[in-house]
Design brief:
13 helices, 445 residues, 20% strand, FAD/NAD(P)-binding domain
Length: 445
């Protein structure tokens, strides 16, 4: 049978103004295995801490519940308190009746009732607690970063700067992510490539970073500080150890496929690098469009490669890597808008999604930065639709927090590059970040 003590904090008037502390204390005292229940104005103060320690010794308590503010504030404080009284620090439960009761419920009866319910649940949970022991374990200092976009690149560079070995795993043939597709960034309208490409090169040159492109994590086992990760290296059909990046194979390849980097607005060779600044600057073969893989003949790239780097027999391989920590920087994907038939995406050629528009703006894109539609004509009027798939009970109820500024950036670039009339169709304009409202104001002028 447990001997539990419940200590309810007034937090000045932060809690006591809405929660009837005396009622809560009386209720807690009647719960199973609770041998003492006390209220105090500031439980985190020195007198409050001493009260808890006195009651632990006086009542021979073996478990403690503190009903107060968020555990983020004082859980460590109260762990030290119970440990100082000879109790295992893990036999403590914090009940948050400030942020979860008094600060979010105005009605006294409701706030008091919820506080009682939280403490009631905590008592039943606390009865099941068992003492735990802290111990030190050896931690592998190496880190894996999954995702080679700007977030993964920055994380890898900062970790490498501390001297740690970093494995940067990216599923596509190059790092850079979506930022590599952009023309400008908001709100400063800086050149995206000017920010990104030096960082990409820094990753390639850093001796502490092992770059693993065309790779995917297939399994993770282990525990904190020691993870065993299985990484699948997809067949590139080009031996990157032999390839010197001369790209002679690209010039001669007769095969064609839609360019993923240009969002299908242009075509690329079957042996390719995604874009001119790709890292690494070594090609891969797309077996879905390669003439040899489809028809069993061609092999032109193999004939022109002086390094003998083309390997049509290459297969997927697997590698086991042990790391102490894993950072998931897996980026984002655009919502599939084809189910939203009212907008006509996929039906009408004049409807584009945001990354397609990015490639139209970009000087390395399919139109070399000229904003023209699929029929080659410059648009006369443009409507930019906000919140597609967001703030919608049928899809995602939350605000994406990005589309307003994204759309405003598009407005600026459309006005800069075309003579078209531009219309913004939105629910609310939410410019939430530093410099965002000022950017909005500039566009209105």
């Amino acid at each position: 049978m447990s001997r539990i003590g419940v200590f309810v904090c007034h937090c000045g008037m932060n809690i006591a103004k809405t929660v009837r502390i005396d009622d809560v204390v009386e209720f807690a005292g009647g719960l199973p295995d609770v041998v003492v229940a006390e209220g105090y104005k500031f439980m985190c103060s020195t007198p409050g801490q001493e009260l808890i320690q006195e009651k632990i010794k006086e009542c021979n308590l073996d478990r403690v519940i503190v009903a107060a503010c968020s555990p983020l504030m004082h859980e460590k404080t109260f762990r030290k308190v119970v440990e100082g009284a000879g109790l295992n620090q893990y036999l403590l439960t914090i009940v948050n009746i400030r942020e979860q009761c008094s600060w979010v419920i105005a009605d006294e009866d409701e706030a008091t009732s919820k506080a009682k319910a939280l403490i009631n649940g905590a008592v039943y949970r606390t009865r099941l607690l068992t003492p735990l022991a802290s111990r030190f374990i050896d931690v592998n200092p190496e880190v894996m970063v999954v995702g080679g976009g700007i977030a993964g690149i920055q994380a890898a560079l900062e970790l490498a700067a501390t001297g740690k070995k970093v494995y940067l795993v990216e599923r596509s043939p190059t790092i850079g992510g979506h930022m590599a597709q952009f023309d400008k960034t908001f709100p400063t309208l800086d050149c995206s490539a000017c920010i990104l490409t030096p960082k990409m090169d820094a990753v390639l040159q850093n001796p502490n970073i092992e770059l693993m492109t065309s790779c995917e994590v297939t399994e993770v086992k282990g525990f904190v500080g020691n993870f065993d990760v299985t990484v699948k290296q997809k067949a590139r059909y080009v031996d990157h150890d032999k390839c010197n990046g001369c790209l002679s194979c690209l010039e001669k390849c007769p095969g064609r496929g839609l360019s993923e980097f240009d969002e299908g607005l242009d075509r690329r060779k079957s042996i390719y690098i995604p874009f001119p600044q790709a890292v690494p600057q070594k090609p891969v073969i797309d077996r879905e469009t390669c003439i040899y893989f489809k028809k069993g003949k061609c092999r032109v790239c193999e004939k022109v490669c002086e390094q003998d780097a083309i390997d049509f027999e290459q297969e997927d391989t697997y590698r086991d890597i042990t790391v102490g920590a894993i950072i998931a920087a897996t980026g984002y994907g655009l919502m599939d808008t084809t189910p939203l038939v009212q907008y006509g995406y996929g039906k009408y050629p004049g409807v584009y999604h945001s990354l397609e528009v990015e490639r139209l703006f970009n000087s390395t894109g399919p139109t070399e930065g000229k904003v023209v539609m699929r029929d080659g004509k410059e648009p006369e009027s443009i409507a930019i639709l906000h919140c597609i798939g967001s703030r919608d009970t049928n899809y995602h109820e939350y605000c994406s927090r990005v589309c307003c500024m994204y759309a405003l950036k598009f407005s600026h670039l459309f006005k800069e590059k075309t003579s078209a009339d531009v219309y913004q169709l939105y629910i609310d304009m939410r410019c939430f970040g530093k410099g965002y409202e000022e950017f909005y104001s500039r566009l209105l002028e």
